[in-house]
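Below is how a single chain appears once it has passed through the pipeline. First comes the sequence as given, then the structure the pipeline wrote out for it. We keep one example in the README because the format questions we get most often are answered faster by looking than by reading.
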Amino acid sequence: MVTYIVHLTVRHEVYPEYVEWLKKEHIKEVLACPGFLGADLCLRKGGNLEASSKEVKVVYRIKDEEHMKLYMTEYAMKLREKGLEKFPGQFSASREVWLETEGFNA
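Resulting structure:
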């Protein structure tokens, strides 16, 4: 399994709207791509009141490396552009891909 982590920094002014967009639209669209198994939306509580932004993390689970490559070549840019159009200049993103993930349960 592959783990794809998207780190987001979102301006306070649009944070509630951005999180709702992630929940109701964006994450569902990403999960509709072939090979995606699930996602976790991680929201930080509290934080520095003087800070101009808040951090968000989305952790996606993908079947294998081939599906990750397919996502990057066929789907990623189109889905990213939607966020850039809806929230221009209001967030930044960085991404990590972990090609080997082993899961453990309690």
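The two ends are 19 Å apart (CA to CA).

See the next section for the split statistics.
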